Amino acid sequence: MPETDIEISHALDLSKDLPPEVEEEARKQGEDPDRVCLMVQELRDMIYERGECKPHRMDDDYLIKFLRARFWKVENSYKLLCRYYKFREDNLDLHVDVHPIQLKCIGEDDVVSVTPYRDQNGRRNIYYKVGNWRPGKIPLVELFRGTLVLLEIGSLEPRTQVLGAVGIFDLEGLSLNHAWHMTPSVAQKIISLMVTCMPIKITSIHIVNQNWTFDAIYQIFKSFLSERMKEKLFIHGNDYKSLHQHIDPAHLPEEYGGTMKSFTYQPWFDSLSKNETIIKELEQLGYLFDAEEFEE
């Protein structure tokens, strides 16, 4: 598929109306339009009756994203909701009084990025270029804050709620300096963010360009991975043809054997930082925005 046939947009699609093909996939996942209201109310009643967490929102749109994240299984959705708020309570430094605008250095250094187009399955692709991360410049907590903001924003998009997202970790340049930061607690926090605690489905994680340092780090992660998690993890090395079995080259940047050009973070930053819906939601979650930041 030529690049011109792929929609490129640095804006979230916040429309509640799903495209027909996404609507069909939603049905396969258990989303029955005739029962949505009943299942949302069932989840809401469960929250009130059990009292194990106090969501900052209880409206239909908010609860639906948790139901979609767990394929409309109400009990599992409730457990996810509780894990989400427990994670927030245990990691106040990741979201309370955090200025998302000030995290733009992560994008400037091309450490974390999201392509402005979707893969052949309609999913968002999140890229982590770990070798570009300089711990002396960007503390690890900033990477966690940036990832959390990114996932919070992504979970607002109905299409992504249904189809999920894909994580691609490019480990070229991974060094011992990076490895020193990968403690068991850090590994557990990464898995919480990417797999167990957020209302967004990471359908697969792909590792490319890893070196011997990865082997040591992976030993730390393995103990926290369930068999189901391991089934979603694919390690490709420098074999991009292996990666292409999962993501069509037409939907990959040229540096991974694809046909798409690379995009900078700036258009995403400009678009999202001016979206009042996104800013309002992030403010409700404890994030801060100052007028002066938008003028920089």
Automatic annotation (TrEMBL):
<dbReference type="InterPro" id="IPR036865">
    <property type="entry name" value="CRAL-TRIO_dom_sf"/>
</dbReference>
<dbReference type="InterPro" id="IPR001251">
    <property type="entry name" value="CRAL-TRIO_dom"/>
</dbReference>
<feature type="domain" description="CRAL-TRIO">
    <location>
        <begin position="102"/>
        <end position="264"/>
    </location>
</feature>
<protein>
    <submittedName>
        <fullName>Putative transporter</fullName>
    </submittedName>
</protein>
<dbReference type="InterPro" id="IPR011074">
    <property type="entry name" value="CRAL/TRIO_N_dom"/>
</dbReference>
<dbReference type="GO" id="GO:1902936">
    <property type="term" value="F:phosphatidylinositol bisphosphate binding"/>
</dbReference>
<dbReference type="Pfam" id="PF00650">
    <property type="entry name" value="CRAL_TRIO"/>
</dbReference>
<dbReference type="InterPro" id="IPR036273">
    <property type="entry name" value="CRAL/TRIO_N_dom_sf"/>
</dbReference>
<dbReference type="GO" id="GO:0016020">
    <property type="term" value="C:membrane"/>
</dbReference>
